[in-house]
């Protein structure tokens, strides 16, 4: 994929976009958005290298995974369907793998739900979504690639609705494909139907596409969920953004944290529209209003489509999908993190790709952004005896080890405070047009500052030859302050040839009022997922330490700014290992 080409680059998103346009036009063998390695895609793993495998993130026992594509809650169980290569550790031979869980943390694996077997999906069964129809009937909408290499939209239904695990799915010949791209649609860029919603007496779904460089969400409607008609106008489109993969469209409540069913409407309800931009390989969203009469989505003023806009995660996070959890009345978001170590290493490791921890998502009281937080169920993996620190002062240039915990598999919550903002460095006006990532690259953890950099050094080796700082740095800009949040993989590994980006985003918080900032990091061997200020800004990094592995990985606190920082409160838990994709044999019951 284009992202992989850029693994060793620190290019800005815009540079990424320009680069990818050129590359995408010239590479032969790009299937959808994934680069194809014909010599590797059907090479089964001889062994599975455990060094960087995760302890509590979702992974199958081996081989390639990409994307989430279909989480759902049905009759007391959570189902996850994901794109999986049963034959190798790079993209290819994709099937819809299927796992079930009672709690979104412990998973058991079933047989694949969908494989490429029919004329309407013979060259691929790609991503899609689930909808629960009236009468409690789940249906999967997915993209099939037909024998002419056209992307068409297909459906599948469970063969036996009384099977609690929905092990077996059928793709009826009657009615498939249910959407055929007409001539005005680019049939090689037409995929990933969304969860359908019901309004004005009709079902609605959106399919991601592009027209030249215009990203498009084509809208289709149906009265009976069988015959679908394209609406005159797309639900939404935006110039210069290229292919829109995995669109997601859902309502959010203007107040509170409760999630809404995808069909929920109401005067006050806002909508979120997310796309996975193939050009940059990041997920972007806007917040806006769904005009059900005009069948249009209109982002709020200031909510920007494209890479100038908001991201769920300012790190390695793509092809995400949300679902409404009927059990807990929340909206849950899942993202996929690919590897950043290169396909040759993926082949040697025998695996590639992880699913990130599911996040509850809701609208920030400002109405201008979303908030995200790891689902509560994750806490069942926390050790009963956490390491705690209170009122610990971090002087300039100091780092302090948080001992007594496993630095490779932990959950850490910490609040930092400071007395004054006087020492905050000035924000260089030249940075205004740069992505935060580039500022973080210039102002790394070892570059001394005023108010910051301070934070955690995660997955660190004893003598700090390897470490991944998750940190804050506060700047003065006009009469205000700007908080930069970084998860910087630059020093994460002594290994050569890795992509080690200085991922970063800004946090919309007025620290002059609170003089405090909070952080939570989920550390799991080769992944660090970090949530700043209650989930206002989130960053995921993939890391491949050579020294800081397993029991050798450590965790430190640090401050490299002249302003003294106090660790008000830190709690760090070792994390346990859930049941991860142990097969659920026929006749057996889920644990
Ligand atoms: N991967 C799928 C596509 C989707 C892309 C194919 C996202 O359906 O657009 O495996 O990475």
TrEMBL record:
Residues 390-574 form the Glycosyl hydrolase family 32 C-terminal domain. Its main location: other. GO terms for molecular function: beta-fructofuranosidase activity. Residues 57-374 form the Glycosyl hydrolase family 32 N-terminal domain. GO terms for biological process: carbohydrate metabolic process. It is found in: Vacuole. Pfam families: Glyco_hydro_32C (PF08244), Glyco_hydro_32N (PF00251). The keyword Hydrolase applies. Belongs to the glycosyl hydrolase 32 family. This is Beta-fructofuranosidase. It comes from Linum tenue. The lineage of its organism: Eukaryota, Viridiplantae, Streptophyta, Embryophyta, Tracheophyta.
């Amino acid at each position: 994929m284009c992202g992989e080409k850029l693994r060793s680059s620190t290019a800005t998103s815009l540079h990424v976009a320009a680069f990818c346009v050129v590359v995408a036009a010239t590479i032969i063998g790009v299937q959808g958005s994934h680069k194809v390695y014909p010599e590797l895609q059907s090479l089964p793993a001889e062994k599975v290298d455990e060094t960087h495998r995760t302890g509590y993130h979702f992974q199958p026992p081996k081989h390639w995974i990409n994307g989430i594509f279909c989480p759902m809650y049905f009759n007391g169980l959570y189902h996850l369907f994901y794109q999986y290569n049963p034959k190798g550790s790079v993209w290819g031979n994709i099937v819809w793998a299927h796992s079930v869980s009672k709690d979104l943390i412990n998973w058991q694996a079933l047989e694949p739900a969908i494989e490429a077997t029919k004329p309407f999906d013979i060259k691929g069964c790609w991503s899609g979504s689930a909808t629960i129809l009236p009468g409690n009937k789940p249906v999967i909408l997915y993209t099939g690639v037909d024998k002419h290499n056209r992307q068409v939209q297909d459906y599948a239904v469970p063969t036996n609705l009384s099977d609690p695990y929905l092990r077996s799915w059928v793709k009826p010949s009657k009615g498939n494909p249910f959407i055929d791209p007409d001539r005005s649609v680019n049939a090689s860029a037409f995929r990933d139907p969304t969860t359908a919603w019901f309004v004005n007496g009709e079902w609605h779904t959106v399919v991601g596409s592009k027209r030249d460089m215009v990203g498009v969400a084509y809208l289709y409607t149906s009265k009976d969920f069988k015959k679908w008609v394209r609406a005159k106008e797309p639900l939404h489109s935006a110039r210069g953004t290229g292919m829109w993969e995995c669109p997601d469209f859902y309502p959010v409540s203007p107040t509170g944290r409760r999630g809404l069913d995808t069909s929920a409407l109401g005067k006050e309800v806002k909508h979120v529209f997310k796309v996975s931009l193939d050009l940059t390989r990041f997920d972007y969203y806007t917040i806006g209003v769904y005009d059900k009469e005009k069948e249009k989505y209109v982002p709020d003023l200031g909510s920007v489509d494209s890479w100038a806009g908001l991201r769920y995660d300012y790190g390695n996070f793509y092809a995400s999908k949300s679902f409404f959890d009927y059990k807990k009345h929340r909206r849950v978001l899942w993202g996929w993190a690919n590897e950043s170590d290169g396909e040759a290493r993926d082949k040697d490791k025998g695996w590639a790709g992880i699913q990130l921890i599911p996040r509850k998502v809701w609208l920030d009281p400002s109405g201008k952004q979303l908030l995200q937080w790891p689902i509560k169920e994750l806490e069942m993996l926390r050790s009963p005896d956490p390491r705690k620190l209170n009122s610990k002062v971090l002087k300039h240039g100091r780092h302090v080890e948080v001992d007594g915990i496993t630095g490779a598999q932990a959950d850490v919550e910490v609040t930092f405070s400071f007395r004054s903002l006087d020492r905050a460095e000035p924000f260089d006006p030249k940075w205004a047009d740069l992505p935060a990532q580039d500022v973080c690259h210039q102002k790394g953890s070892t570059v001394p500052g005023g108010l910051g950099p301070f934070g955690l050094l995660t997955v660190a080796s004893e003598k700090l030859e390897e470490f991944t700082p998750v940190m804050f740095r506060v700047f003065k800009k006009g009469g205000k302050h700007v908080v930069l949040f970084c998860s910087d993989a630059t020093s994460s590994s002594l290994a050569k040839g890795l992509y080690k980006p200085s991922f970063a985003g800004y946090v919309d918080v007025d620290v002059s009022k609170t003089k405090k900032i909070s952080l939570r990091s989920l550390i799991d061997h080769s992944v660090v997922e970090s949530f700043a200020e209650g989930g206002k800004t989130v960053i995921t990094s993939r890391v491949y330490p050579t020294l800081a592995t397993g029991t050798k990985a450590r965790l430190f606190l640090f401050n490299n700014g002249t302003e003294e920082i106090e660790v008000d409160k830190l709690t760090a838990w070792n994390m346990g290992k859930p049941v991860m994709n142990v097969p659920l044999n026929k006749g057996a019951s889920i644990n």
